[in-house]
Every structure is written in structure tokens, then in C-alpha cells.
Amino acid sequence: MIKISLDPRTKLFMIFAVSFIVMVNAITPLEWGIRIMVTLIPILLLVTEGKYASAFRFTVFYGASLLLLKYCISESSTGIFSAILVGYCGIVAQFLPAMITAWYVIRTTKIGEFMSAMQKMHVPDGISISLAVVMRFFPTIKEEYSSINDAMKMRGISLGGGKVTKMIEYRMIPLMFSCISIGEELSAAAVTRGLGAPVKRTSPYELKMKAADFIMIGIFAVSVIIFITAKYFR
Fold first, then answer.
1. Please, what sign has the CA dihedral across residues 75, 61, 99, 209?
2. Are the CB atoms for 143 and 164 separated by under 8 Å?
3. Termini Cα distance of the chain
4. Where do the TM regions start and end (predicted)?
């Protein structure tokens, strides 16, 4: 599989484009086709990066929600289960594309590359540092939650011993304290590296837009234009 490495600026443009498309309700087949296309592209990029498990999970969740919305849910559906199913499928179909794109960006972008891209775009340090901390925060939280799970398994505790209150005590409370600690540590690490210093920083990463970046920007820009035209100028 050929690895496609994109510039962080291209990835940010992808996030903005996908976010705009998913925030507008899709009705016609063309609008749904554009939304599905911009969802599949980040999934394929995850595959090229070797993130097969993430790509598979996203494909299953998104595909299942679309199939349920299309064939299994109708306006005449009633009952609590149908209401829950409609809500779940609607949320997944509406917001998962942006989440997939954001996950792709977080998992495939180094902090140094991201900060270099922010500097080239002349983004204020306050914004770029905050985004850099957020990009490291969620993967770190995932690792921390896995560590908590392993610790509970070593103690023979599964899902809080079958009690909801114990699950909160054994898993959620340690995770909350870990979130606070991790946030402080990441912020301190950013300051220690001089990210907030009033000087021009150097970077070992030489960012340069390649053909793949221009192609991807063109695809998403055209998708947004077609989507807007189909939505508002029919």
C-alpha cells in the first residue's frame, strides 16, 4: 500500500471542508454522495497509513448507520427502540465524517509538523499551542484508559464488579484525575519547549506542498462548491 503523506495545512483544510458539509443537512442523492465521498477519503488515507483497525471500525459504524437510515427506519416507526435507533443513526451519519477526518489528522500528524504549519500560516501562538495540546491530549487519554483497564483486570475487576457505582469509582474517577494531570503536564511540556516564547522558532521539519496536497485540496474545494450549488442554487 502506497503511503500518502499530506501537509498539515492540507489536513486542516480537509477538516474545515468536511465540517462544513456535515453541518448542512443532506437531502438529495447528490448531496449524500458528496458527504459519503468526503467521508471515505480520510478512511482510505488511514488505510494508507497502516491504521487498518481504525479504518475498519469507522467504515462499519458509518456504513451501518447509513444502511439503517435508508432501509430499516421509516417515518412511521414508533416505540422507544426506534427512537433510540433513529437518534443514534442520525448522530453517527451527521457527525462521524468530521470525527473520522479529525482522528486521521491527530493520528498522522506530528506535533512538530503541526507547529511548523501553524507558524507558516502566521497563526497566533495562543491558538496553535492550544490546538497542539488538544492533539496530544486525546491519544494520551486513550492510553491512560487502557492502562486503567489493565489495572482493573489484574485485580480481577470487570466493569466495576457488575455495579454501576463501582464502575464509576474504579474507572471514571481515576480517568478524571488523569485528565487533569495530563492536561497540566502537556501544558508544562509546551511551555518548556519554548512554544510561548516571544521569539521566532526554528523547526527541523521542512514543510512543502506536494502534488498530493494540491489534488486533495482541489477535491475537497470542488466538493464544497458542488455541495453549496446543489443545496442553495437549484
1. negative
2. no
3. 40
4. 12-34, 54-73, 85-106, 211-233
- Give pTM, 2 decimals: 0.75
CA-based nearest residue to 190, from 112, 138, 124: 112
Q: How far is CA 119 from CA 70, 100, 168, 189, in A?
A: 45, 25, 42, 18
> If you compute the radius of gyration of the chain from its CA atoms, what whole number of angstroms results?
21
pLDDT digits (tens, 9 = 90+) for 45-76: 989 888 888 889 999 988 888 888 776 665 55
pLDDT in tens, 108-149: 888 778 888 888 888 877 787 777 777 777 777 777 778 877
Q: Which helix (H) or strand (E) holds 105?
A: helix 80-108
10: nearest Cα among 97, 98, 117, 122: 117
Domain ranges of the chain: 1-110+206-234, 111-204
User: How many CA atoms, within 13 angstroms, populate the side-chain half-sphere of residue 16?
Assistant: 8
What is the C-alpha to C-alpha distance for residues 160 and 142, in angstroms, rounded to an integer?
A: 19
Task: Judge whether 101 and 42 are in contact, CB under 8 Å.
Answer: yes
Task: Give every CB contact of residue 201 below 8 A, 6+ residues apart in sequence.
Answer: 115, 119, 194, 195
